[in-house]
Structure formats: C-alpha cells, structure tokens
Amino acid sequence: MSRIPLPIPGNNLGDYLREQRQSARLSLRQLSELAGVSNPYLSQIERGLKKPSAEILQQLAKGLEVSAESLYVRAGILDERHGDTTSSQDAALDTRAVIGADPQLTDRQKAALLDIYDSFVGAEAAPTRKRSTTPQSRPKQSAKTTKTPRTQGD
C-alpha cells in the first residue's frame, strides 16, 4: 500500500503561492523555471506536502516578484511585525535597546544613532528618553573664561 503524505496543517503558504502564481498568470512549470525549483517540488509546496527552506522561498519570491519577507511570514520563519501599532512600537523599543546595550558605542554615538533612528521612524514612535549626562554626550561648551587683567594693586 502506498503512503500518501498528508497536507501540512494551516497551509496558508501553499495557498498564497498559488494565488500569487495565478495572479501573475504563470503556470507551475513557468514559475518553476523562473525560480529554479523543480516542477514537482513546487506542486508539493502549493499542496502543503512540503515545507520549503528559506533559500527556496527567496527563489520563489524572485520568480513571483513579491517580497521574500511575505513568504517567510507565511511559512512561519518570521513573525509578522507590521500592522498594529503595539508591534511597531515594540520593534522601535527593541532597536533602541540594542543601540543602548552596544558596549562598543560611546554615549555620544548612541545618542546620535538614536536621534537618526527617530528621524527615520518619526517622532510618534519615539518614547521620551533621558539624555545621558556623561561628559561625552553633552554639547561642548567653551572652557575659556573671561579673565580681567590684573593690576599691580591686586
């Protein structure tokens, strides 16, 4: 008796690949040639019988002209982080935490990187943060003081 493999539960990757392939008006054979993946293997992925590696997903993404990240999310390789505001805030906090924890950066460099990061992601995602009070992160102030000339009687 031959064993027929059962589909992988929750196969939204295969369904998604099929939808993308059909909307691009590509046959299985055409996509397999574009992506450099065998026709039978691609068919098995679409039917949920095989779980492709990240490399195969990247090749399929190029063939379908979609982002590899979207395929990684569908395959469960990556967590979906965009969409809701709490996730994007968590990602921003993760980035800030990584910058803050890097032992190779001075406080001044960390402050500069955080300012640049905030300028890219927008002020609404930036939590209020304390500026470091170490001498490296403070703006340089002139150390010169005005001296009054001494007179002989002083």
Describe the structure.
The chain is mainly alpha-helical. The protein has helices at residues 12-23, 28-35, 39-46, 54-64, 68-75, 85-101, 107-121. Among the domains are: 12-75, Orthogonal Bundle (434 Repressor (Amino-terminal Domain)), CATH 1.10.260; 85-125. It has seven helices and no strands. The termini are far apart.
Describe the secondary structure blueprint for this structure.
Layout: H1 12-23, H2 28-35, H3 39-46, H4 54-64, H5 68-75, H6 85-101, H7 107-121
Separate helix tally: 7
Structural category: mainly alpha
Low-confidence stretches: 131-140
CATH superfamily of the domain at 12-75: lambda repressor-like DNA-binding domains
Radius of gyration, taken over Cα atoms and rounded to an integer in Å = 28 Å
CATH structural fold name of the domain at 12-75: 434 Repressor (Amino-terminal Domain)
Mean pLDDT: 76
Give the topology string: H per helix, E per strand. HHHHHHH
CATH class of the domain at 12-75: Mainly Alpha
Choose one word for the global shape: elongated
Helix content: 40-55%
Hey, roughly how much beta strand do the residues contain? Answer: under 5%
